[in-house]
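Researcher: Quick one. two chains, 500 residues in total.
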Amino acid sequence: MRVSMDIELKDVPGQMLLALQPLSECKANLITVVHHHQKRTPRKTVPVKLVLETRPESIETIKAKLEENGIRVVRVGEHRFRESINVVLIGHVVHTGIQDTIDEIDKTGFAEVVDLSLSMPGINMLSSALMKIDAVGKEDLQRALSILKKVSAKKDLLMVLPIDIQA
Amino acid sequence: MKTVYCSILGFGAIGQGVAEVLLMKKEYLERIGLEVKVVAVVDSKGATVNPEGVDLADCLARKKTDGTVALENLSGVDVIRSIPHDLVLETTPTNILTGGAGLQNMLAAFQTGKDVITSNKGPLTLKYRELIETAKAAGSHFRFEATVGGSMPIVNLANEVLAGNRIKSIKGILNGTCNYILTRMLEERASYNDILAESMQLGIAETDPTYDVEGIDTACKLVILANAIFGLDVTYNDVEVTGITKVTPEALEMAYERGHVIKLIGEVSRERIHVAPRLVPINHPLAVGGTLNVASVDTELAGEITVTGKGAGPIETASAILSDLVAIYGTDR
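Model:
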């Protein structure tokens, strides 16, 4: 899973190494480091934001090891969803049960419909929906799209996918 | 000076475009050592023949006033079999169900040892392998740049200019009518049917637009690319096709608000051939508007190369035919 972490380093040399050692020991994969050199906290420490990928069970160990090294861990946040796409659905989107379409994605546990715009210009006219779907990873996103493809075929909806996604 | 004797089979918009371009480019062709003599012009009603070269300007004028060039009751195949010449410029209308007169003309041309340059997709969509093999056995040149993307170079770009590169995929907009309709629907927030009517009035869409708007034309072009560039042996039935008839102005608008346009995208690789409306970021190289065609060729060494140009129009299509002619016979450019 992907985790973001706000930490604070003392303003003395060698602190970054102390912060990175525990990550390496726990085999966490460091995605980004934003080192706010110019900022100081009221405690005169330097704020640093990390994003890393690790196993959920390692998070507590990493946190403990950082604190052992004298590094303050201010916040740990989980980035559950990493992938996100927009999909357009055209057809009788509402009458064929939009809640059911959303539920098919949401119940997977690895993907969710997080935004929906809907336009229904008139009775007996085609409706259009733009859905934003978030998923845990790339493969999960593809799996969610396969589900949506089946649902769309069943409900006779035209599904318009982004060009960089394998349709 | 090398003299190339040729026939123009099919004298509709494209055949006439070819005649105009041959007249326009007479001096250029002579500069590169080529004299092109058209020994026969054939339309659906008959032919004008002169083994020493017909008067193209006269053919164009008669076509305008009389609706035909027919002076003799000869078909394309008759001309191919009875009049000696080197090259057949095959510009008859596309028929993807039977291959139409084009298929008969091409096969007859190869059987009599002639070269063929064509703008006609039908025969290539149906019988690509057979045509290539017949041409090869006869030692004939066979070129068809004009069948895909009109003036926009794609077949020769991938096979010749990018020679040595493995082509991984090609995706793009290969039908100007669909591009025009989707572009105008977004601009005017108008329905598909309203813009289709406008396109018909402007002559951008045919009176029966099925072939364009259902994605069939795009699929045929993908079949040609799949066979000619990827070395596959596929036909129209191997393509997954969805057209644009269901696309709504509301969908276009919602997509646009999130930074996307909807385009009918054709996509071909060794794994799959696919036509469908897709969301394209507005700053993406494939997000071209109006009647333009565009294609991105993903190559092994050169990365992605994108070309765009006018996908239809008599002079534009004739430009691709001229480039094929020069590629076969021009030596002193």
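Chain B has a mean pLDDT of 95.
Researcher: Thanks, that's what I needed.
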